[in-house]
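Hey, I'm writing a tutorial for new members on how sequence and structure tokens pair up, and I'd like a real worked example in the thread rather than a made-up one. If someone can provide the structure for the chain below, I'll link this post from the tutorial.
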Amino acid sequence: MTGNRNGSLAKFSSADRLSQGPRELRLKKEDCAVNEPRATVEIALLTGGGDKPYALGMAAALTSEGILLDFIGSDDLQVPELLNNARINFLNLRGDQCPNVSPFAKARRILNYYIRLVCYAATARPKIFHILWTNKFVFFDRTLLVAYYRLLGKRIVLTAHNVNAGRRDSKDSWLNRFSLKCEYTLSDHIFVHTEKMRNELSAEFGISPGKVSVIPFGINNTTLNTSLSTGEAKRRLGLVNDDKAILFFGNIAPYKGLEYLATAFGELLQTDPSYRLIIVGKPKGDENYWGRIHRAIVQSGIADRVIERIEYIPDEETELYFKAADVLVLPYTHIFQSGVLFLGYSFGLPAIAADVGCLREEIIEGETGLIFEARDSSALARAIEQYFASELFRQLERRRSQIKTYANDRYSWSRVATITTGVYSGLLES
């Protein structure tokens, strides 16, 4: 039985930067011998329940390079891209991840997952375990679980999407830093997305730069993108053509700086009532953070110009917001890189981003977006006004196509796969 070879993105060259039969294995909790991995499988990809589009993109890119994968997933990752790919052995160790269950059911589900994972590791043939994200108990995952993999003789590859998310979320502690130090030290190789992250790993955790590779954050090419037009998307959200639609999308957490955008939006409405703000995402971390912002929006009298959808948005509904919006705003106060930025680029949407982390490196000012001073709502308001007065906005439909082409080249999964498979080969030969 043959599967789909999703392949890497086609190569793109230009003179300038912008114009330029698989097996699904359902495991029974009473069965410790959870699977019999194929002898030819070389890599186990441990998703840990992280970014679904990233995991799908990585799997497609690696298999297009001839890699055979044991893909450790869950019910929500049982999609044709994986199940119909003959190079992927889909192992549903995590099962149902529906949040609407009792605490007891959640605890049992997590325990069953770890039992399955431990048993899988003991019998698995892949020599390399590539960890994309940790699981529910990060301290256990970073220390004892990684040490267990090493005792089994596995080579550990880790993708570190953040060097220290605890510090970003104001939850840093000696235990957090100790567990990160363990994970980074026990890993044979680490992937990060920017040079700044590699330098921080070296400076703060003593990790040799030679043990770290920088890979692009692969462009999101799995989120549904239908023939839905911009006009129809605006109509569905109750927008009119003259509305200047600003989008905030993603987890609503303190480091995202949404309060600065809300304040800037209020300033903009004082001189131009055509602005609309679309806030889409699920609160995360500080439970009172979104409540404070919402109350401020209501008390300032601008709620009638704000569209709110405060919940997790499934992939099939994402395109509505990115097609209805005229610009994406990332008012972050602390971050290295943003998956939301690349999601926006996949829809050709320009971005206005705070000058934090490496966002400046990812935005070509005037061509894919603008940069403003972080934690400064007035600077953000000025940047938004500048954008809506620019050629980038006036020629938005044409520029959307150019941005998509640019992003598919610079953040191509084929580039990710080339670097990643090179690291795999080096580890298998050493």
